[in-house]
Specification:
single chain; alpha+beta
Amino acid sequence: MIARDASGRKFPEEFVEQLKELVAANVAGNAQLVTRFNDFIRDAAKAVGTGRAGESADSAALLSRWIDFNLTSYSVVSTHGLALLNGLLSAAENALIPKAPSAPGTRPTPEPRVELRLEGRPGDRVTSAFLVENHFDRPLDVAFESGDLIPATGASLPASRIAFEPATLAIAPRGQAVVQAAVTITRDFVVGQTYTTTIRLLGFPPKEVGLSVTVLPPAAAAKPSGPPRKQTKPADRRRARSSR
């Protein structure tokens, strides 16, 4: 591939190579067309001269074939004519409308970072959802990965503690889908800590989702309702005796 300058202008050598390719493709296509046309003349002469079982083709059959040929020809001309005009218009736009050259080494600007904040107690399964949108004219297959859950102090927890539902997405052009991020707070989570990580979308333009999980203390034991019951002291045995 011949390099271009910063403005996107083609060098003369590139025009020469492009012209050579066009001429070679045209010659090969014309050779195939001549061979096919000769075969068509030979087969058409046989088909028109005789019908099935050696009988001469009648005028009704010839008329039917002629009408079918005209309709098919019109369909081909219409379809390829529209494609030709669209192609010429695209070529004119690319050649005549200047486009700002992209700076070397630049990367697509990532979308604004989404932040998911979860909190729960030991034993809880906490979830949060986020939206994934496909702004392109082609379908996208998206998967998810995350880093370890890192607290402010102490040991981090593996990324396998985070589950995505669904695990992968197939988003149609200009479509969107919702994903659930779920975390089960097990005994490994330290009460009072907030664990953070970053979720990355694979097969998608640069996009990151922040996730934080705050571990709350266990719920206090339920207190009995009403005033506490007083313990009854045993009655004096002397009072319980009958007088003699």
